[in-house]
Amino acid sequence: MMPMTRKPLATATHAPLLLGATLLLFIVIAGALFLNLMRLRDSFSWVQHTNDVLLSLSGIQRAVLEAETNERGYLLTGIDSYSDGYRHAHDSLGSRLDSLRALVGDNSAHVARVDELRLYVDMRTAQLGRVVELGPERMREALDILEQARTDRLTERVEASLTAFTRVEQALLTERMLKHDSESLAAALITACLLILAVASAAIAAFLLEHQRAAARQQEADQRLQSLQAELMRVARLSTMGEMSSALAHELNQPLGAITNYVQGSRRLIEASSHPDKAKIGAALDKAAQQTLRAGAVIQRLRDFVGRGETDKSIESLRAIAEDALSLASVVTRDRPVDVSLALDPTADRVLVDKVQVQQVFLNLIRNAFEAMRDEPERRLRISSRPAASGMVEIVVSDTGPGLDAQINDRMFQPFATTKADGMGIGLSISQTIVQAHGGSITASTPAEGGTVFSFTLPRADNSDGHRETDAADPQRSICLRAKIGS
Ligand code: ADP
């Protein structure tokens, strides 16, 4: 029997490569995400910066307005709160312009704009300051200054400078917000890719892990099958040797008996004769008779030894034995799949047997069935069991082969009886010896509907006499297993 080996699947060799590639991709995408987040942070700070500039500009505009309003208020009413309000607006303008210049310090065009603005603001506040100093008491002079201010158009210049600056900043804000939006979108997309990749790599890792586990399980099953095959082959060799010596002993016994008879007849003839050497011939014939008897005794001892059928019995599961034998036999029927059904009665599963020897019986019967069905269009094997009388269980192995050959019908359990060109004719004989050594019996028949049915009995472990004809047929009680073997 050839040991079964399996090629490792391609995935097993590609597994580290696949994982490595996924990891690399993961690192690249994570790096891209990091860079993008950095850019996103930058673009956000630019948006914020532009907002700060715009706020600062509107603060300056408000302060200019406040200074002008308070100047007019004071001129018209002479109330001190207006002159205070003016001074406050004037002071804040200076600090606001300083902070705006600091904000746009990295942009020379903006710095120039701020300086221009500062020039107009300073000129305007100088006029306003003089008006506030003159106050309502010197209204005439104050109105002259106001008239001069209208001519100088300083307010309009301040306004125009502020508006131009604000427009530039608003355009910048729009541009920076668009950039920020597109970078946010890119970051979201990269994050989604990363998530998908993380899920995919988790799935790949889970698949590879499961694949590795399956390979380990397969390896374990292969190893178990190989050790089973080795043990069975050892027992098969021993059984074959035993069976052959037994058959040889049986065959030799008859000629030995005849030799003894001839020697004794010759002894009697020489006794009755007047041959001069009759004493010598008689002694030689006695020795020949003794040696023949000795040869007979040796052969008898050999038969006794072989016939003793030493077995190593323990409580075993019939189902496990049958399944092991099926997986061993499946090796020979790879090219011709067989539909196998197991219908073993679970109440008669525990048997007291020599496991390896009984496996040998199953294997012989299953292999014979597979071989018999090789050229049949329909290949079905059924193995069933049911409790039998006297604490035994009956196992039935039936196939859809051509049935038993009439030539061999009455001697198929004898050693060397075979109809196969390459057969030894030992399998059934060994099976019978094993079954009988367990106190059981084995029979074969060809039912009317065709095929061959082998039936044998084995002792049940509980040894109860629960003989019930209907057990195996009861679908509730018998566990049925169907499988396609060899495909
Ligand atoms: P071998 O298989 O070497 O011939 P066996 O003792 O196992 O020796 O079988 C003896 C003979 O019994 C086979 O040659 C075959 O003619 C017959 N035989 C055994 N099993 C079957 C079967 N399932 N269907 C038909 N014939 C069978």
Structure report:
The chain is of the alpha+beta class. The chain has three domains: 12-203, Aspartate receptor, ligand-binding domain (Four Helix Bundle (Hemerythrin (Met), subunit A), Up-down Bundle), CATH 1.20.120; 231-307, Signal transduction histidine kinase, dimerisation/phosphotransfer (DHp) domain (Helix Hairpins, Orthogonal Bundle), CATH 1.10.287.130; 314-485, Histidine kinase-like ATPase, C-terminal domain (Heat Shock Protein 90, 2-Layer Sandwich). Helices cover 66% and strands 10% of the residues. It has nine helices and eight strands. The protein has a six-stranded mixed beta sheet with strand order 6-7-5-4-2-8. The chain has a two-stranded antiparallel ribbon with strand order 1-3. Strand 4 (380-388) and strand 5 form a beta hairpin. Helix 3 packs antiparallel against helix 4 and helix 5 packs across helix 8. The two termini are 18 Å apart. Bound molecules: adenosine-5'-diphosphate. Residues 364, 368-369, 372, 399, 401, 404-405, 408, 412, 417-420, 423-429, 452 line the site of adenosine-5'-diphosphate.
